[in-house]
Amino acid sequence: MFLFFIYSLYLTIHNYFMTVMGMLEKKLSELGGVPTVDKVGVEERVARFKSRSIKKESKMQGLKMALNMIDLTTLEGKDSPGKVRQMCYKAAHVHDQFPGLPTVAAVCVYPSMVHVAKKALKNTNVGIASVSTAFPSGQAPQDVKIRDTKFAVDEGATEIDMVISRGKFLQGEHNFVYDEIASIKEACGKARLKVILETGELSTLDNVRLASDIAILAGADFIKTSTGKIQPAATMQVTYTMLMAIKDYYDKTGIMIGMKPAGGISNSKLALHYLIMVKEVLGEEWLTNQWFRFGASSLANDLLMQILKTETGIYQSPDYFTID
Question: SS3 of 7, please?
């Protein structure tokens, strides 16, 4: 009887994993498989995006649009309630002397600081994002990751930024990654899920494309390049590869998926190149903070400096802007 019980248990577990494996393979097959990325072609396309000229009117529109797409972020061990409150004030009042400017899209904090952000952002339209799943390493047991996510949502997070298990992905355990993302999506409830691929650790654009497809199929509302803790972080080449995964999925299903490049985007000129790329690859529908974000807190001040220079003719010093 004991041997029969062990064998039955083995079959149950085996069948479960075979079902998950079959689900991922079936979904990838329905999409037509995962295409090989032409690295040379990507480089050439990105170079063309960078060569686009922007008229003055369009530039101002793009600068304000980019400002409204930023997730202001503080993810440090020394984070305190005071630091989070200061960041939240800036999120809702980016420059007190120019009250007509848009707010940023959201703030992003650790789960333990979500309740502080929620109180500070009451009666604003700024979202509250929280990292989870043992950010930034992702090295924690599954039950810990799920509790981490549920805690953040219960505290008031409207968005969750999870990290995938890069070690498992690079070992070829793609079904594990798919299953993990799906379980975190379920734990999110009504909160939107951004899946961080940490592309700087994935080594190749082919890996970036496969990880993007897995995240999308597992239920991601957004796919995100990086934690900001690893270099290289966001690049236009990586972002273009991820945008193509979104485009291919949309073309086949009609379902929109958001995109968030994070880390390394610190100046307005580069941000505008990203917006041009999003428009030309995905279309104008993606040019809102509902579907596109920048994970680049330092970008906010550069955008403010460029906006005020265009409106007033005076280029203000960085000292006139708060750091957080």
Answer: helix
Contact between 213 and 219 (Cβ < 8 Å):
no
Q: How far apart are CA 185 and CA 35, in angstroms?
A: 26
Q: Is 38 designated active site?
A: no
Query: pLDDT digit string (tens) for 135-158?
Result: 999 999 999 999 999 999 999 999
- Asked if 306 and 268 count as a contact pair (C-beta separation under 8 A), the reply is yes
| Rounded Cα–Cα distance for residues 46 and 295 (Å) | 20
Angstrom CA distances, 157 to 136, 174, 237, 304, 311, stand at 18, 28, 31, 27, 35
Q: What is residue 8's predicted lDDT score, i.e. its pLDDT?
A: 55
Q: CA angle, 181 as apex, 179 and 183 as ends, to 5°?
A: 70
Q: Which of 161, 213, 221, 302 is catalytic?
A: 161
Structure tokens at 76: 């440090």
Q: Quick one: pLDDT band at residue 65, thresholds 50, 70, 90?
A: very high
Question: Looking at residue 169, what is its pLDDT?
Answer: 97
- Highest mean pLDDT among 7-11, 64-68, 310-314 belongs to 64-68
DSSP symbol at 232: S
Secondary structure (H, E, C), 137-200: CCCCCHHHHHHHHHHHHHHCCCEEEEECCHHHHHCCCHHHHHHHHHHHHHHHCCCEEEEECCHH
Given pLDDT bands bounded at 50, 70 and 90, which one contains residue 19?
low
Q: How many residues does the chain have?
A: 324
Catalytic residue (one of 145, 185, 194, 260): 260
Percent of the chain with pLDDT over 70: 90
CB 102, CB 64: distance < 8 Å: yes
Among candidate residues 214, 228, 215, 201, the one with its CA nearest the CA of residue 295: 228
